[in-house]
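Narrative summary of target 7.
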Amino acid sequence: MILRSNHPSYPSQSGDYDRGTFVSYFPVGTDATQLEQVLHHEACGHGFAKLADEYAYEAYGAISADYAAEIQTQQAEWGWWKNVDFTSDLEAIRWSHFITDSRYTTEGLGAYEGGLTYWSGVWRPTENSIMRYNTGGFNAPSREAIYYRIHKLAYGDSWQYDYEQFTEWDAINRTQAAVTSALEPMVLRRYEPTPPVVVGKTWREAMNK
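Modeled conformation, tokenized:
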């Protein structure tokens, strides 16, 4: 099965969100469950929230310094890839605020090495999530990215992020994440590595290439 997602253009404005178009395309799979999982990973995760892949392949080895620097620039300038980092320091990692929040202790948050398809040098927030093996739900940093982008696109620069307002909104998701973790076995599915591709052109040009 070939799954492919595509960022067809660079952000059209500076800042930590953008109204740019995203094209996501993939097979429908063999059943409704598989379609739902892949849709969540590709369209909702990559396309809307600009989340990174959390899966890794041992054969890919360590992420290069140049690629890590490129991702860090996009994180800083565009607000993308909020679910990966390049440190295992739990006090400095991008989602450290969740690790110290007792409301999130049941979600298994930490620093798990492997992500962006690379085996080492990059860390993800949880052992598994929809952004790793297309199973489970979005982990807390990913849900935060979704929440942030929804509000920025709806209200623009006038809207300011408030962590406590997010945690209030996220209460139902924390409950569901805890139940899923406690009751459902984790089913791991491996796919060919097909990370998002940023294309510096319009979506029409990207689709016709």
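The chain has eight helices and six strands.
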